[in-house]
Amino acid sequence: MDYVSALVPPVVMAALFIGVVRVIVKTQGGAAKSKEDAAVDAALARAENASQPATDA
After folding, report:
1. What is the pTM of this model?
2. Average pLDDT over residues 28-43
């Protein structure tokens, strides 16, 4: 029975890890993806505009 007690913790941890990965994969995309992408694009545009020197002509 020692082998059962030795295998239970790794099996439980593997099952929990697989569950976490599945949740992460399922939450990628969906209805909020376009909103999140728009927020990231806006932040990148602000960062690019801030890094470019202003040219007054």
Report:
1. 0.49
2. 82
